[in-house]
């Protein structure tokens, strides 16, 4: 018997070792070849793809088209599966990879018919842009053809990679529309529900303007707090404790100062786009060197695998960066019985077979049925002007003025584009697809009120050049004037506290260095939470014996989202708890219609603060004697639940609640979330949390700065470009983790690439 057990044990070990060897063997075979030479019919002149020690793709070409081929080849080698996910996410084709579990996502995406729209959009592109995408596509597919074994993601999913198509690059842009605007498409429906179901007083109370405003012109939307309205007792009685999602997904920053505020007279730009963080990271370090006669055009920055453009970067004359604009780019129209609709069948491929999805369409947009009524969505992403390659025109701009002129009709989700040039100029512009309709809607209206100007893009895009302050800043909140806000609308603006903090930092100095800008990117001072800190401290000091340890933690909170701050955790989580409890009566009711206050959660600070300060009787949650008891009980339950989450029990030292542990950054591969055993191979090491919402250093557990760029055009040698991960999506690649350590330690990574360590040469065939 003992021998049999030993035999089985040894056999299991041998089989495990064999399986590991096979797995690593397959991984090794799927590594791309990064040195050598090849020939292709897709280029006109000899072209080089080099990589430095970080894996930065350094492309040397005689024309932009050849550079696109080499960039497509690099993307195909290092990031094809990521590109595949981008196109499938937009097209609603994930089920072919992951099976029927992905059908709800695919059906949601098919509502927008982005595969069909990308094919039509490609046909509308100028012939030169079509050729650009075809050449880029050839590069991707030539790289794909060189793999003798598919990358491990296809081995795990037991599927085969499908060739890239030119229109897939437009799907990659549509995927960014979903990421940047998709969550806010239902804001108008939520607003309508608030007014219809809770009345004007409660709706207006929840939607009142934020006191935190930092528009570039200094204009303010007037705030006039009204007393908290009466909450119907019926809502209070049926309320269930519900966690309202505290989205951190509004977090990009950029700013610039004129050359008069720098030591060398060149303007300085900072850009840190905040997105969900995963392995591999979304951006790809790229430098294009295009030699035209005696002139060298060098563009350094990041590209999006799936598209041939440099998204953010500098060309030696002009630097550009983006934050999400959050203007109102979607309206809902209530259809009448006279409005004609049609049914279209969307065929969703599965691993085996296919799934049919029926979509109802109208002349105003795709249709959704809500409480028996039909509503049509008009969204800018559905318009003919939504996607194009005009972003690439920035690459040749030599001044801020030229950059503004060539970017008026750029087909991307509307962004706050900030520019700086080597002559010392700076500018801001709302860049991207903006509908020409003149009156953004906050609630659905009858289809008879449809504005036909939806079909054309706005020509009156707002911009500012060299403002009197000599500074420009954006942080996803309102940038335009209060008057212009009526023209462009609120599509889910950030609260404004972060933008105000950036503005404050920029006004504190008269001369800026690279280090000063990096300090602002890493600024985690808890300015916004200061009043909540004071409120909680005053509450707990009423019973300083019971809350002795808590008061000590609060007193040493350091006024920052620092990794060792327990006090910050207590303040931050207490505010979250009050949101869940005080708005539970409304959220409980909204959930029945599959709506949520999470769509406006970041904007209900004025209402939340009023409730806590005014303490109206009708809003006091049931089973509590008075507001003091409620506020204390909410704190105790929040603290104990958090202790249980972190330690497994409610007792023990509060030191377990350090913000660095509670908000630990975990940059994971999508597969390791489903197959945890792969975590040690695929994931980046966890990092103690640093930063939070409502401050420049935005960071959550799976969210943060997707890149940190600081550059003065013409002085790129001193520029900074730090990314939270490596270039390659292959876990055995030397470039898989390169750069993450510097990112996690808040250290500089140079913008310009280092000496090449590998090179592929392409010869025209």
Automatic annotation (TrEMBL):
Protein's UniProt keywords contain Hydrolase: yes
A Pfam entry, by short name: Penicil_amidase
Protein name (record): Penicillin acylase family protein
UniProt family annotation: Belongs to the peptidase S45 family.
Complex formation: Heterodimer of an alpha subunit and a beta subunit processed from the same precursor.
InterPro entries (alphabetical): Ntn_hydrolases_N (IPR029055), Pen/GL7ACA/AHL_acylase (IPR014395), Penicillin_amidase_A-knob (IPR043147), Penicillin_amidase_dom1 (IPR023343), Penicillin_amidase_N_B-knob (IPR043146), S45 (IPR002692)
Organism: Grimontia kaedaensis
Keyword line: Hydrolase, Zymogen
């Amino acid at each position: 018997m003992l021998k049999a057990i030993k035999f089985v044990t040894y056999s299991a070990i041998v089989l495990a070792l064999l399986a590991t060897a096979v797995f690593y063997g397959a991984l090794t075979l799927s590594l791309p070849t990064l040195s050598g030479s090849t020939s292709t019919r897709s280029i006109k002149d000899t072209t080089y793809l080099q990589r430095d020690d970080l894996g930065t793709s350094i492309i040397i070409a005689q024309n932009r088209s050849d550079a696109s081929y080499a960039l497509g080849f690099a993307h195909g080698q290092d990031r094809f599966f990521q590109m595949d996910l981008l196109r499938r996410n937009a097209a609603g084709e994930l089920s072919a990879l992951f099976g029927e579990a992905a059908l709800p996502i695919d059906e949601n995406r098919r509502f927008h018919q982005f595969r069909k729209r990308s094919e039509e959009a490609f046909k509308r592109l100028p012939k030169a842009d079509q050729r650009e995408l075809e050449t880029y596509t050839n590069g991707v597919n030539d790289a794909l053809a060189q793999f003798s074994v598919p990358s491990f993601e296809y081995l795990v999913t037991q599927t085969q990679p499908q060739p890239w198509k030119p229109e897939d690059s437009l799907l990659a842009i549509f995927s960014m529309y979903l990421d940047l605007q998709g969550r806010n498409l239902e804001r108008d429906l939520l607003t309508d529900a608030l007014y219809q179901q809770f009345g004007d007083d409660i709706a207006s109370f929840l939607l009142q303007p934020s006191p935190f405003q930092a528009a570039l012109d200094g204009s303010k939307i007037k705030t006039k707090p009204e007393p908290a309205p009466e909450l119907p007792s019926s809502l209070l009685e049926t309320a269930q404790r519900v966690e309202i999602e505290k989205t951190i997904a509004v977090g990009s920053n950029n700013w610039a100062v004129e050359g008069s505020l720098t030591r060398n007279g060149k303007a300085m730009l900072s850009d840190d786009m905040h997105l969900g963080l995963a392995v591999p990271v979304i951006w790809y370090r790229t430098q294009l060197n295009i030699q035209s006669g005696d002139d060298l055009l060098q563009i350094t920055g990041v590209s999006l695998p799936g598209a041939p453009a440099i998204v953010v970067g500098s060309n030696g004359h002009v630097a550009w960066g983006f934050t999400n604009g959050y203007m109102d780019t979607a309206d809902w129209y209530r259809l009448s019985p006279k409005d004609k609709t049609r049914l279209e069948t969307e065929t969703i491929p599965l691993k085996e077979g296919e799934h049919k999805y029926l979509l109802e369409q109208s002349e105003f947009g795709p249709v959704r049925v809500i409480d028996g009524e039909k509503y049509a969505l008009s969204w800018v992403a559905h318009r003919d002007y939504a996607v194009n390659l005009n972003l690439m025109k920035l690459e040749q701009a030599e001044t801020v003025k030229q950059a503004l002129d060539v970017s008026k009709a750029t087909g991307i989700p509307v962004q706050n584009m900030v520019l700086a040039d080597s002559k010392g100029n700076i500018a801001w512009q709302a860049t991207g697809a903006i509908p020409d309709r003149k009156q953004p809607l906050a609630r659905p209206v009858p289809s008879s009120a449809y504005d036909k100007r939806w079909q054309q893009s706005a020509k009156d895009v707002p911009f500012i050049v060299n403002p009197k302050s000599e500074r420009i800043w954006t942080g996803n909140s309102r940038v335009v004037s209060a008057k212009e806000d009526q023209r462009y609308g609120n599509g889910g603006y950030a609260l404004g506290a972060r933008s105000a903090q950036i503005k404050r930092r920029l006004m504190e100095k008269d001369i800026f260095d690279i280090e000063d800008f990096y300090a602002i990117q890493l600024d985690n001072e808890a300015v916004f939470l200061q009043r909540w800190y004071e409120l909680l401290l005053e509450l707990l000091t009423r019973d300083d014996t019971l809350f002795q340890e808590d008061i000590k933690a609060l007193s040493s909170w350091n006024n920052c989202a620092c990794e060792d701050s327990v006090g910050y955790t207590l303040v931050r989580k207490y505010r979250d708890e009050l949101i869940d409890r005080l708005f539970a009566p409304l959220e409980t009711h909204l959930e029945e219609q599959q709506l949520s206050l999470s769509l406006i959660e970041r904007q209900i600070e004025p209402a939340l603060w009023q409730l806590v300060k005014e303490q109206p009787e009708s809003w006091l949650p049931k089973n509590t004697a008075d507001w003091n008891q409620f506020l204390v009980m909410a704190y105790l339950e929040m603290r104990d639940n958090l202790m249980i989450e972190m330690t497994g029990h409610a007792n023990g030292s509060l030191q377990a609640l350090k913000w660095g542990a509670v908000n630990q950054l975990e940059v994971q591969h999508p597969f390791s979330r489903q197959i945890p055993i792969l975590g040690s191979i695929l994931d980046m090491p966890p990092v103690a949390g640093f930063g939070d919402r409502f401050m420049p250093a935005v960071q959550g557990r799976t969210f943060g700065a997707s890149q940190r760029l600081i550059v003065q055009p013409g002085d790129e040698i001193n520029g900074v470009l730090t990314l939270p991960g490596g270039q390659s999506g292959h876990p055995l690649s030397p470039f898989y983790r390169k750069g993450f350590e510097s990112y996690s330690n808040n250290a500089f990574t140079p913008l310009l690439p280092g000496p090449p360590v590998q090179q592929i040469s392409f010869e025209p065939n």
